[in-house]
């Protein structure tokens, strides 16, 4: 299809919600309106695509949402979209609304679904990386990551008060699925004693020695940040392995959990989301398809869905080293 033919697009949010998704939606709808495209919002991601929950969206429909967390379009994890029958039903609805292209705001699962679907049904997609996990290759940051890290740091600041008062050891678990970005950035930003992430080997003897030495040196409390995807079973798994030896520090486990997914997006996330939403429509108008937009070194870029999903994005090892040096 000649990309100049694009007249009607659909946009949806999918997978875990992330603060800033609304800002991205706003940017998509307004950039599209500016280019005289008709926009349909699909509710609850791929689920709504299968059920035909489409609604026309105009400039005013995205007023007063830039500051709101979550996603006004709602989201879902769709088992039905994993089946060819579910996807065929979704394609049928897109055809009935005469949709020429889709913009998907989501994470690696969403991009996988978009790739499979566009290959099967020949519908162009552009992806916008929206996930708190920051686990997508091709962009320095994903929408929602900065807000989630800020929320986690706020929580650790509060835990410090009680940890300090009782001279205790806290193991704080943060989200990130299989990735340690949230944990590492939270640890650095909160001045934690140590951080345990799936991307770096964990030596429990070293950890115990550091904590004991800190105590001997007069450090009255310790906070260790643990990524939920840590192979030893997250914060609870680590606590189980060290609690006998460090019983005098009364180890406590705190799982921050879904708190990290909520709240107003930070300025950085609003700006990132606005730039990526705007770029997604521009790239579609330029004839690009089946790529995701990203920002690398402050510049807008595109990358294939395959790269986004399969190429490894790991926290820089220099940052991991720095975190341990700054915790001495
Ligand atoms: N291999 C796949 N084929 C088809 N759809 C998929 C596939 N993988 C993921 N999806 C769809 O993408 C949705 C969102 O993915 P999920 O991993 O839950 O969140 P995220 O996009 O935030 O990583 C899934 O619920 C599913 O409907
Ligand atoms: O909200 P759920 O379905 O319990 O899923 C929790 C997972 O979602 C996340 O918060 C976000 O992941 P996605 O963006 O890939 O959906 C992960 O950090 C966490 O492991
Ligand atoms: Mg994901």
From TrEMBL:
Binding locations of ADP: 26-30, 160, 217, 219-221
Where found, per UniProt? Cytoplasm
**NCBIfam families, from UniProt?**
PFKA_ATP, PRK03202.1
Q: Briefly, what is this protein's role?
A: Catalyzes the phosphorylation of D-fructose 6-phosphate to fructose 1,6-bisphosphate by ATP, the first committing step of glycolysis.
PROSITE patterns xref list:
PHOSPHOFRUCTOKINASE
Q: In which pathway does it act?
A: Carbohydrate degradation; glycolysis; D-glyceraldehyde 3-phosphate and glycerone phosphate from D-glucose: step 3/4
Superkingdom of the source species: Bacteria
Instruction: Please tell me where substrate binds in this chain.
Output: 131-133, 168, 175-177, 228, 252, 258-261
Catalytic-site annotation from UniProt: 133 (proton acceptor)
Which protein, by its recorded name, is this? ATP-dependent 6-phosphofructokinase
Q: How does it assemble?
A: Homotetramer.
Q: Which organism is it from?
A: Neolewinella antarctica
Q: Which GO terms describe its molecular function?
A: 6-phosphofructokinase activity
Read off the lineage from the record. Bacteria, Pseudomonadati, Bacteroidota, Saprospiria, Saprospirales
Q: Which residues bind ATP?
A: 16, 77-78, 107-110
> What region holds the Phosphofructokinase domain?
8-282
